[in-house]
Structure formats: C-alpha cells, structure tokens
Write a structure and sequence with these properties.
Blueprint: H1 2-23, E1 29-30, H2 44-52, E2 56-63, E3 69-71, H3 86-89, H4 98-101, E4 120-121, H5 122-129, E5 137-141, H6 146-156, E6 162-166, H7 170-178, E7 183-188, H8 197-216, E8 224-231, E9 239-240, H9 243-255, E10 259-264, H10 271-279, E11 284-287, H11 290-307
Parallel strand pairs: 1-2, 1-11, 2-5, 5-6, 6-7, 7-8, 8-10, 10-11
Antiparallel strand pairs: 2-3, 3-4, 8-9
C-alpha cells in the first residue's frame, strides 16, 4: 500500500511540474520584439502583437543625446531608418536628440505596410503595460542604466513586469537595489561558427566558468539565465554547448531557483528542434522565428490539456 501511495504521489508531482512548465511558456521571448524579419524591431505595435500572442517581447534600452530612453537595438539608424538624411543615418544614437529621430520611418526597411512605424520611447511602452500584469517585457541593457529604467518603470507601476537583461550578471545586483525582488535575466553565449569538438569544448568551458562566477554571488538578482545554443543536425549531439553541459547547467540553475531559457539562432524555425530543446528541461524559449514558436506553444498547451 505504501508503494502505491508513493507511485501516486510521484505521478501527481510529475504532472504538476509538467503543467507548471507549460504555464510558464508565457515568459518566452521574441528577440527584438519582431524576431529576424517578422515585425519591425523594438516597435510598440510589435510588442502589442507579441502580448496578443501570449508571449513577452524584448526591448533594447538605449539613450538619446538628451537622455530619452528609447527601444532601439542598433547604435545608428543605418539599418532600419528610412527617409533620413545621410548625416543623421550614420550618427550614433547617443549623439542625436529625441526631436531628431522621433519622426523617422523605422518600419519600411521590412515592408511598406509598416511605414507608419516610429521609434518608441520606453515611457510609451511602460504606459501600455500599466494595469496589465500579463504584459511581461525583457529589457536588454544597451546603455540605459538600471537606476534610470527603474525610476521610469515605477512611475507606471510596472517594475515587477520587467526582466532587466544583460550578459553582465553583476548588473542584476544593481537592479535588485532599485527594484527589490525584481526580475533579472543573464544571457550567455559565445556565438560559435560551427559545432566542431574544439568549439563545443570552448562553449562548455565558458558556460561552466560563468556558472561558477554567478554561484559565488549566490545568483544575486538572477531570476533566469538564457543559454544561446548553436544547433547542427548533422552531428550526433546537435547542440553547442553540449547536451551534457546543457543538462548540467539546467540542473544547477533549477537547484538555485533560477529558470532557464533557450535561444537557438540557427534552427529556431524548426519545430522538431524546439521540441528536442524543450525535452532537455528548459522552462521557455527565446526566438527569432515567432510564428513557429506561437504554433509550438499552442501545441504544447493542447497536449497538456489532453493529459489532464
């Protein structure tokens, strides 16, 4: 009888854990909001589209010359700006005022249908999140310090809906000082060019070293870690870092109450690969291919409902 009770307890624990993983998929992230080429980068309209599909967009927090915090990834307007004088196009954002860039067409680079897209201020984004706790935002630090972002977020009461994000894990402690109990995500990756044994070993060593450093500060302010995965389906182990290293890392982070996000930039449009990644134990995804991710999340939720 005791064995039966034990097996029943294990069954419910496994199903509760599976359910919580699926429920946590709303924290999946669309890189730059629109992914590689689905919607304009860092635009408020794009963020609304992401939230409407039940996931979180990423915004890049950059400062203008007059200290207006904007959502913009690149250092200049050259890639996404249209109908802009050449001297403005190649000037660093940090040397331009908000008045000089506020009317720039930041959507036509992708398609004429997005020609009305303009650069968004962080203030307008936070305003759209106010009173909507379901609207989570990943905010990648691109020059706007934690203190400035926190002050602006608190004006709208959305500071606890933001993952302050950086490859520099020490910034998470600064975020904690201004937003006690706030969310912080560290992204880790070496952007390898191949999955050769040497490259994989280097990626594994990098990941292990970063974990040791974060463990020394007791993962202070770190709520989530994003792992960059290079996928090569011609290899016996398709992942870089290696599958063994990934599983070891996930176990260590979970043991310390830290969730783990997967970002594969080479096979993000391959749903079968995303399922393999999900099976490794990741909590959610980041993607450059949002349509595929939306489909996968819908399928995972449907499969979970059938198991109930």
């Amino acid at each position: 009888m005791k064995i039966l009770y034990f097996l029943v307890a294990v069954f419910f624990a496994i199903n509760i854990n599976a359910q919580s993983r699926v429920d946590g998929l709303f924290r999946s992230q669309v890189h730059r909001g629109g992914g590689r080429d689905t919607r304009p980068d860092n635009a408020l309209e794009t963020f609304l589209w992401c939230w409407g599909h039940g996931v979180a967009p990423e915004a890049d927090a950059r400062l203008t010359k007059d200290s207006v915090v904007i959502a913009f990834h690149d250092a200049t307007l050259e890639r996404v700006g249209r109908n802009v004088p050449n001297d403005i196009l190649t000037t660093p954002i940090t040397n331009l005022t908000w008045a000089e860039i506020r009317d720039v067409d930041a959507g036509s680079y992708l398609s004429k249908e997005f020609s009305s897209t303009r650069i968004s201020t962080l203030e307008s984004i936070f305003a759209s999140m106010a009173g909507r706790p379901d609207r989570v935002l990943y905010l990648d630090e691109k020059g706007a310090p934690p203190e400035m972002v926190a002050e602006l977020a608190k004006r709208f009461g959305v500071e606890n809906q933001i993952y302050y994000t950086s490859p520099n894990f020490r910034l998470m402690a600064r975020w904690q000082k201004v937003v006690p109990g706030g969310l912080g995500m560290v992204w880790l990756g070496t952007w390898p060019r191949d999955n050769s044994p040497t490259t994989v070993a280097r990626a594994d060593a990098f990941l292990d070293a970063q974990l040791i450093k974060m463990e020394k500060v007791n993962f202070n302010g770190i709520s989530q870690v994003q792992l960059h995965l290079r996928t090569d389906l011609t290899k016996e182990d398709p992942f870089c870092p290696s599958t063994e290293c990934i599983k070891r890392t996930i176990d260590k982070l979970h043991a310390n109450g830290v969730t783990v996000q997967a970002f594969t930039w080479t096979e993000g449009a391959n749903k079968d690969v995303l399922r393999k990644i999900w099976d490794l134990g990741f909590d959610n995804f980041a993607t450059d291919d949002p349509i595929v991710l939306f489909e996968l999340i819908s399928e995972l939720k449907a499969e979970q409902r059938k198991k109930k």
